[in-house]
Amino acid sequence: MLLVVINPQKSGGGGYESGHIRIHNGTIADIPEGWVLCDGANGTPPMVDRAVVGAGAQYQPAQCFGADNQMTQGHTLSIDEMPSHNHREASLNFLEPGGSGTSQAKVKSQYSFQYTQHSGGNEPHDHGNVDVRQKSIALIWIMKL
């Protein structure tokens, strides 16, 4: 049995005082007599699906925090965020009557400007969920009544 002392208040007889919290390496059904699951009931802290972090400057004692998932917000890419890419140049040319042979052919542009083909849909994107949890094992937090 793994034992973690969170609130060490041992009595003179070697037993555990009321309010002592420890980890139980078993099931909820086999929690020892005189102990209860730390689920927020019976004056226990809500420890189901939670890990413990040391209280101090950033977290106050008994403060609950955190989330199961992290999601990034989708947004439309700016020009600077778009991947480096290029576009094919398009123009419309035609042969004008006259001249002889390929070296004498007259080429005339219908348009006096060049343009590129439109590329990209200007759509927002997101990155989905990413699991950032440390490797862990699920055990049961119990408290002495």
From TrEMBL:
Alphabetized SUPFAM superfamilies for the sequence: Receptor-binding domain of short tail fibre protein gp12
Organism annotation: Vibrio scophthalmi
Descriptive protein name: Phage tail collar domain-containing protein
